[in-house]
Design goal:
Length: 107
């Protein structure tokens, strides 16, 4: 009879990548800016001053930086990639949202 090999399970917790955490935070802040500024613009009936444009630009920059940090987080070895995936997805959704806001503003 052949011997059965035992499977060994390892339950070590991997730490999150610092770039992944930065990506998730920047993506969430950008998404909150998007929702907040859309709500503020709706309440002001489209008559917002220039501060809303400056905040929007900051949201776009944060989303792009979040996307960059998310991709950099995948290069870290022996780390949990949950925050990198989450931050990359949230940043991408935020960039798509900002793209539609800019396109609507141009028309």
């Amino acid at each position: 009879m052949a011997k059965r090999q035992r499977q060994v399970y390892s339950f070590t917790e991997k730490k999150y990548s610092a770039n992944g955490i930065a990506s998730a935070v920047l993506g969430l802040i950008s998404l909150l800016f998007l929702v907040g500024l859309l709500f503020a613009s709706f309440l002001l009936k489209g008559r917002a001053s220039s501060w809303i444009g400056a905040m929007g630009f900051a949201g776009i920059v944060m989303a792009c930086c979040g996307l960059r940090y998310g991709y950099a987080g995948f290069k870290d070895e022996c780390r949990s990639y949950f925050c990198s995936r989450f931050g990359t997805i949230i940043s991408m959704l935020s960039i798509v949202g900002w793209f539609f806001v800019v396109c609507v503003g141009l028309t």
